Amino acid sequence: MPVQNDKYQQGFTLVEFSIAILVAALIIGTATPAYIYLVDKARTNKTIDEIKSMQRDINRFERKGNRYPDSLLEIFPEQPVDPWGNFYQYLNIKNASNPNAINPRTDKNFKKLNIDYDLFSTGADSLSLSPIAASESLDDIVRGDNGDFVGPVRDY
Fold it and tell me: What DSSP letter does each residue of the chain carry, written as one string?
C-alpha cells in the first residue's frame, strides 16, 4: 500500500490565492478607467453629432417659417434625449416673446454664447449653470458662436 505524503496536497495555498487576487485587482484597476474614458468619449462624440443634426433641423425650421421654434417639440415628436438620458436643453433667444425673461448662457467673460438660440446637453452630471465656466457646467456639450462651435465646454 502506497504511503501518502501530506506535504504535497493539491490546491492553492493562501499565498498563491492572494497573488492571484492581487493580479486580478491590478488588471481590473488598470482597465476600468480606460473603459470609462472610452465610454464617455463615445457619448460625447454622439452628443456632438446629435446637436449638429438638431441644429440643421432648427435652422431649416427657421428658413421655412422665418422664426426659430419656441421648443424642440415644434420640430421633434418627442423631447430629444442625450446619451446620458437627459433632455437636450433649448432656448430661443432671437424670437422669444419676452426677451427680458430669457437667461442665455454666457462664457467665462459673461459674453453670450449665441444670439439666436442655445442648444446643449447637461452632460453626465445633469447639472449646468451660466456662465459655462461654473464647475457644474464643465461636462456640458454646447453649441456656441451661433453654431460655429459644437463640443465640450472645456474646448470652448
Answer: -PPP-GGG--S--HHHHHHHHHHHHHHHHHHHHHHHHHHHHHHHHHHHHHHHHHHHHHHHHHHHHSS--SSGGGTSSS--B-TTSPBPEEEE-TT-S-GGG----B-TTS-BS-SSEEEEE-TTTT---SSTTSGGGTT-EEEEGGGTEEEEGGG-
Does some domain include residue 1?
no
Q: What is the CATH number of the domain that holds 49?
A: 3.30.700.10
pLDDT in tens, the chain (156 residues): 555 555 666 777 888 888 989 999 988 888 888 899 999 999 999 999 999 999 999 999 999 999 999 999 999 999 999 999 999 999 998 876 655 555 778 888 888 889 999 999 999 998 887 788 888 888 999 999 999 999 999 898
Q: Which residues contact 11 (CB under 8 A, 6 or more apart)?
A: none
The answer to whether position 136 is within a domain reads yes
- Where in the sequence is the domain holding 41, given as residue range(s)? 14-155
- Count how many residues are written for the chain: 156
Q: Into how many domains does the chain fold?
A: 1
Cell of 95: 424670437
